[in-house]
């Protein structure tokens, strides 16, 4: 029987080396959970990078065995691969380009070469496991060349691709010297998915203008094949957030945190360290709020959680320094002996503590300058069993297309963000409830499990349409 293979740059685990042994912690992330029903069943499997550089053959053999038990298979990356493929082409070329940060784009042919080689490495690892009629679902921008490589090796396979980050307009795409190879690479898939309609339109327009392939109603006509392109906004494991927020454990943490911060209002921000998240802009807006509203001094604090990420990439290092400086400044200017404006944490938190932060914060301030979807805002909404709290959301996040009852802001509009925070802090309870209830309804209905189902159903549909056309 044909099986399904999930492929992503990172495997859904974290790998640690402790006392001479490897420890694997399965990821509790939404995508891993949503795809759990697929890769954990039957002969199915998830293939990807375990996240470290392991050169020793014995250690590699140990990892292969351990991962096998978890229904995963590793693709090992060398130190050079990490520098040139992961930090280099993926995160210094594609990431800034796809998030519209053209000033950070590196055009390095050596990195491009490594990107091709590592995509080939993934392809070879898949071919060791795949049969001709299998379904292979490739995830994200690190593997744009992979669908076409797979198509050449397995012409009858069912291949899908989903992009978790934005897809830029043609004008940005054409800046990348290797644009045509990248687009042809993705077009090896039968189904190509994005979070939003806009991303999908940008992709179709770039394909039409750069590769010459035409499309109609979301179907690209390739030689002997059709390729469906559509938007599939990703949801979260809604029930898990509801349950955790209600749990005794989280409620006790809330009490404990409240004892520490007192009854002041809390504004929560949680992001991976990334320039696309608009963290400095957000601190500036909060600064302006404190400057203009002296009555709020001592009454409101920002809880700012920044999760370390890609810390070897220059633009990320610089961003970290900028944030340190801005937080230092605002706290130096406004702190008193019993009040700190910004509580800044540069680390990750366990799930139950995140749930407590979500449950107790009066505002979640989610203001990326550009974001494929953004799940933090969805997690905040799901965690509000009391239907209290206010979501301030950037219109540049994919989630803003679904969460229309948030306070939508332009993250570059410092004055607008400041005003939204002020409105949020003074919003009456019944209005909070009305907005929360309507957003909860949307997220509950279209959760991560539904997302996986809708995507897989569509893939089956496209494949049968393709088979009909071929048999005519
Ligand atoms: O969602 C975008 C994404 O780049 C994923 O592909 C990735 O797993 C995640 O963010 C975290 O980034 P990284 O793997 O670079 O730590």
Helical element count? Answer: 17
The residue fraction in helices comes out at 40-55%
Distance between the termini: 26 Å
pLDDT averaged residue by residue: 96
Ligand inventory reads: 6-O-phosphono-beta-D-fructofuranose
Radius of gyration equals 23 Å
Low-confidence stretches: none
What is the 3D form? globular
Sheet with most strands? 9 strands, mixed
Strand content: 15-25%
Structural class: alpha/beta
Strands side by side in the biggest sheet: 5-4-1-6-7-8-11-10-9
The counted number of beta strands is: 17
Please supply descriptive tags for the structure shown above.
472 residues, alpha/beta, nine-stranded mixed sheet, six-stranded parallel sheet, globular, binds 6-O-phosphono-beta-D-fructofuranose, transferase
Report on the structure:
There is one protein chain. The protein has 472 residues and is an alpha/beta fold. It has helices at residues 30-39, 57-69, 79-98, 109-127, 146-153, 170-173, 179-186, 197-211, 238-246, 248-261, 279-292, 314-334, 351-360, 376-382, 414-425, 429-445, 448-471, and strands at residues 4-10, 13-18, 21-26, 45-49, 72-74, 135-139, 158-162, 191-194, 215-216, 219-222, 225-231, 265-272, 300-307, 342-346, 363-366, 390-394, 407-409. The chain has a 9-stranded mixed sheet with strand order 5-4-1-6-7-8-11-10-9, with helices on both faces. Strands 14-13-12-15-16-17 form a 6-stranded parallel sheet, with helices on both faces. Helix 2 links the parallel strand 4 (45-49) and strand 5. 48% of the residues lie in helices and 18% in strands. The radius of gyration is 23 Å and the shape is globular. The structure holds 6-O-phosphono-beta-D-fructofuranose. 6-O-phosphono-beta-D-fructofuranose binds at residues 9-10, 140, 164-165, 309-310.
